Amino acid sequence: MQFSMILLHLSGTVMLLLWAVRMVRTGVERAGGPALRDVLRRARSGRLQSAAAGTALAVLLQSSTAVAVLASGFAASGIIPVSVGLAILLGADLGSALVVKLLSFDLSWLVPLLILIGGVLFLKFEARSVRQAGRILIGIAFVLLSLHMIGEATAPMRQSTLLPVMISYLRGDFLTAFAAAALFTWLIHSSVAAMLLFVTLAAQGVVPIDVGLSLVLGANLGGGFIAFWLTRGQQAVEARRIPLGNILFRATAALAALFALQLVPFPVDLFGPTEGRQLVNLHLVFNLALVVVCLPFTGAMERLVALLVTDAPETKAAAADGPVAARASALDRTVMRTPSLALASATRELLRMGEVVELMLRPVMDFFEAGTPERIRQVQKLDDEVNRAHTDIKLYLAEVNRGTMTPAEARRGIELTDFAISLERAGDIVAKNLLVLAQETVAKKLRFSRDGWNELVGLHDRVMANMQLALNVLVSSDLDSARQLVVEKERMRKLERLSHDRHLRRLQSGTPETIETSDIHLEAVRALKEINSLLASVAYPLLSESGDLLESRLAQGGRAQEKMAHLPA
């Protein structure tokens, strides 16, 4: 019974640790997503610079896996070659080890302060960046709190009669300890969390140093498998080659170190006064050595994984036909005599239509920088699927409307039809405007000025965030989200005007890149603003019904006025 309670306590604290690490990562991604992706876009000038960029991003995101997924996406879009992606991942693994080093210090005294400041920022402010800063601080506090709780949960294990038997077995079978750590790290999908758990167990005297060394090496291998697993379904082979190359680097180094430790006595005392500190420092040294040894061979590894991961004939054929296969329609004709079910069916199909538009819009900025005609044409073909969905939804709802419906159901049918029209128009703008501009930019080898590029990336990321918000409103009919969507429309209008004025000032100053890309820049900004306005249309019926919308503007007073007052200048 006592062992069961210890296991329950430990499982709960590990889950808190996983959730806290994820909370910090999502906060950083939401607060600085454009800046983080821009770092990767520019990490192409050399191996050292790429590794340094990967290290910085992993420290900020507290996850080498998140960096690996980002790098794989850029490789799939042709922004970075596989060798650069491998260098970024080597640096990211080092950054992840630095995170473990920082979090291993006794910072429990910070927990109340971080929760207090983070809670105030998240609950009392409306600006997105401020709220995400609060999320990050609360997440760090929960990481520190979970580590303290892990120590408390494992303290009784030192008196357990079962523990010496398990430790004795692992001491005699280092391969099992290594494999178990790799499997555990992959299962929880966080090398940082796994390492912090192992370090805490060692600091509590639960895990001896010789077993801890095998666990650390296993965690390093398991961390590489996470990114490989998450990208296994990617159609672009470049996206799968980067995690595979990283695994080959890490597996070779980890297994070599594991067997070397069995043959040669290792001076662990040089790495710290306590077993927990020794494991942290050894983890850091291992990843630093991996960067130094493997970085010169990223080109050779790129050639090796190109031989191991090739385009299958059926994959090439699918790529020629389009980036995604047509999915079955969600429109259920068997429920057309039941309007409530038919409207729910149409909403599901409309949600799928919105996801296809999102899939079209997401890679646009990557295509502006390094798109290929083939990839751009593949995404343009998605517009055919959007058009089909638009037609099917309109005809389906028109047939449903010919039946017996309540006024509310009839009104909902019209709202869904209107939003289908908006999404179809948004798809046209992406396919016939933004992607055409991207083709022109690449064909003429044009480059935006740094300020102009940052403006475009910022606007694109804002539209992508509002796309998610609009689809949430479609499904949930949440009033707060609807209000935020209309507020975002006004923000976008101001940002478009600001970008226009700044662009004209750059033209006046004679910036060569600005002169070359002037028409493209202005058209792209205008297109992003129009797409954002079309997305915001999903909120109007909901706000009009609630009385928050008067003559296409948010009603003044109440919560709407309070939210507008917090808009940043």
Automatic annotation (TrEMBL):
Domain PhoU, first and last residues per copy: 350-430
Keywords: Cell membrane, Membrane, Transmembrane, Transmembrane helix
Subcellular location: Cell membrane
Transmembrane segments: 6-24, 67-90, 102-123, 135-153, 174-199, 211-230, 242-264, 284-301
InterPro entries recorded: Na/Pi_transpt, PhoU-like_sf, PhoU_dom
Topology of the protein relative to the lipid bilayer: Multi-pass membrane protein
Protein name: Na/Pi cotransporter family protein
Natural source organism: Mesorhizobium album
Source lineage: Bacteria, Pseudomonadati, Pseudomonadota, Alphaproteobacteria, Hyphomicrobiales
